[in-house]
Structure formats: structure tokens, C-alpha cells
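## Example pair
The file below holds two records. Each record gives the amino-acid sequence first, followed by its C-alpha cell line.
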Amino acid sequence: MLTVKIICVGNLKEKYWRDAIAEYSKRLSAFCKFDIHEINEVKLPDNPGEKDISKALAEEGRQILKIAQDARCKIFPLVIEGKMQSSENLAKMIEQEAVMGTSAIAFVIGSSHGLCDEVKKAGRGISMSPMTFPHQLARVMLCEQIYRAFSINAGTRYHK
């Protein structure tokens, strides 16, 4: 069974976001081993400079890559410059990874400042949209799209 992880910076404070994630986690358990790893966002000063931000992103990146490497995950960072995917293409991508023998994949969501170059270069970048979303909403949307992808691959009626 394929392991699917979401590695993300920050945590969900509001109950309604946690409830939505719990629902998709429950649904995904029929298709894959699914989990979410949250890492703490590195604290920045009130008016951070580029050097402060770069240093924070590098530290977050080290943590992200360690989690992904320890779990032997193929990485898919969510980045604005990544390739936009339709639901059907995401389903094909996940199916191809499973067929090729990949045992674990990780989708990575960075902080409000994004991801460091090392994380971006470590995998195949995906863009959800040219629009910007709150990270909590992006996490829920990603969970839904992963569930939709598995539903498409299973031939269920969820995706119409």
C-alpha cells in the first residue's frame, strides 16, 4: 500500500480545519497509508529581512528533507512556479508512482514565505493555482485532491 504524506510548516489552530483534515484522513485510509507531519515555523523578527527569511527557510527545509528522507519519500513540493495539475493528472501521477514501485510520496507545503531552493529542487514542483490561498485552506484542498485522485483511480463515483 502506498504511503502518502503531507509535510507542512505550521499547524492548524481552528477546529474546523482539523475536522476537515480528519474526514479526508479517514476516507484516504481505504486507499493508502496517509499521515501529516507538521513542523514548527521558524520564528522571525517583526520586520524580517531577506537574510532572516532565507535562514528560516533553510532551517525549515532541513527538517522537511529529513522527514522525507527518513521515510524514503519521493517529494512533490507545492510551489507557485510548479506545474499545475488537473485532478485527473494528479490521479495518473499517483498511479504511476505506485506502478513504478515508489513506496512513499510526500507533498510539501511551506510557510507563508514559501520553501527553500533545496526542497524545491528535491522533487517535482506542483502548483495548485496561480492564486494564493491561506496555508490551512491549501492543506484541506490538497487532502481533498489526494482523495479525489485515489477515487478516480478506483473508479468510484466521487469524481464526476
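Second record, same layout:
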Amino acid sequence: MEIGKEYFGCLWRYVDNPEITDIDFNGSALWLTNIYNERYCASENFVAEHMTDGFVEQFSQRIANLVSRQFNKRNPELEAETSELRITILHEAVAKSGRTISIRKTPPVIRLTREKALAEQYCEVRVLELLMNCVRARMNFVFCGEPGVGKTECAKFFSQFIPASQRVITIEDTLELRYNSVNPGKDCVELKVEEGIFEYSDALKACLRMNPQWIMLSEARSKEVKYLLECWSTGISGMTTLHTDDVRNVPDRILNMMDNRVDADRLENDIYQAVDVAILIRKKAREDHSSYRYIDQVCFFLRENKQNEICLIVKNGELQRDSLPESLLARFQRAGIRNPFCYGEKRGEVDVDEKEIQNLST
């Protein structure tokens, strides 16, 4: 579904601005977020002149008509999406501060690059290359952090290093990964779930009949994570995102999603076997009050000799150790990776070109 600029009225100037990523109206003020991770308020004059009750009601009804949904006190939540936008509107019956409008841009681009990651202190080069090698070794990733910190963007970045011949199936309720668009020519099936029609559990079960080598679940929210772990335990690789503030809390966070204690007890060991690496992304403020995102923690999950172990390798954005457990080294070696901290080494030969090496070093 596409929505023309006439539907957005005064908001179009922000929708059309490539530097704006989020547009949030809380009933009285309009807040904007840009690609530099800065969040600021639109002028009071703009809100007073343009964000009138009449405009807000008109915009809401336009979106409701587009998706053929009722929007009123009995149907207080309205959602719509286009190829590049996700729109959420909450009625004042439930949003007591006033009718709320949230517009998030989900363009089919990857804003994060290797050069940008290093230049903007997203992570140090050895951490970056280690994680890129984890993709080559077909490890399972969980990206953690608070809402809006950039978990999906980080997943999109590392998904670039999946070989084109390896089939990827993405599962989302709102299309944000855009794997086909950002990885043209690669083998991918994009699945969209819908409550009551095609649930997450349905999609995960269907995946097993579609010959996947990777399953990317947009977000692990509930008991569907059990089916995801079952898929990963069959040898399928994957990526997902999770809301938690410490990578070491990932197992407990997943266990708390289960319906009962019996399921949780059975699943604990499976987590350490199926999940390989967790990455925590945070925001940090600069002296000029702007902020930047960075990889704060990285850990590996291990299960050996019937014991579960968490190997924290990055803490506070800094690499904590130069060596890895033998079981991890063996896994990299099986993938032909001699040095996990150097991307491009394979069977003792460097297969990354000189230009890439220079870019990674800058």
C-alpha cells in the first residue's frame, strides 16, 4: 500500500525529509528523531498552527479508510504500513494525553556500513570482524537493547554477509528487515504474519518445509521463541531481536516468555545449545548533547559437558579477551576461518581485497 503526500498534510515536510526517522505526536507536542540519533521538539508555533484537532481527526480517518478499519472508542488502535512507513494511531479513549500518532520510517536501505561503524565508534575493528566471521560460521544471533536503539538496523547490517546462495526466510509482523531490497540477487522469502490468520508459530512451522538455511525473526516477544529455538536446533541458522539490557539476561528473558514452568525448565539447556552469540546495543551521549549508538556487550553461549556457560567477550564497548574457548575456535575452523578476529582469512589465505582492508583500518 502506498500513501500519497496529500494524506500527510503538514506532516509531509518531515515524512519527505531523508534525515528524519521518527515522527511522534503525543497529543500536544510533535517530537522528531533524526539519523544522527538526535530527538527534538517541533516548534510550538508549528503545532499550534497545523496540528489542530481537525487535522488530527482528518488524518486518522484517512488512514482508517485506507486500511478499511474502524477507528473510534471501541476500536482505539489503528495501524497501517507502506513500503517505507509504519503508522500507529491511538485514540484518546486509551491515550489520555490526547490522540497519539507515531510514524516510523522503514526504508529499504542499510544506514550502517563498516566504515561508518568504525568512524563513529560503533565498535572496534576486531569486534566487527569477529562478528562478521560469526555470520560466515553460521552462528545464531540475538540482538538486544531498548526500543529504538537500532537492533533491527544492526541485524540488517550483519545479514549482508550471508552468502547469496544460502536461502533466508524473514518473519515479521511489520516489514522492516527488507532483506530482498537491501540484498538484491540473494535467495530470500519474506513472510508477513497477521494475528488470527498467520501467526508466528504458523510461519516458523512453515519455514521448515521451505528449505531455509537462515531464519530471521524480527522480534522474539512471546512463546513463538520456542519454535524458533527448535528450528535453530535442526541446524538452521538465524537472527532475531530481543528487549533486554544485558546479554547475560537473554536466557532468563526467553524462559520468562514461556507459558509455564515446565516448558521453561525443559527449554533452558536448549537456549545454550541453540543461541550462539548475543549483542547489546546502547546509546551514549556526547559532550555536545548529541548521542551515538554502539555495541556495548557481546557474549557467546556455550553448553559443554552438560554445563551451561556464558562467555562475555565485549563489555562497556571494549574487547575483554584475545582468545576464545576451544569449542568456539573449533567451530570457526570448521568454517575455514583460521583467525576469528580477522575477516577475510580462509584456509590461511586472505580473500578480502586491499581496498576493503584500507577501509576497515580508517
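Notes on the second record: Residues 53-66 form the longest helix (14 residues). The two ends are 42 Å apart (CA to CA).
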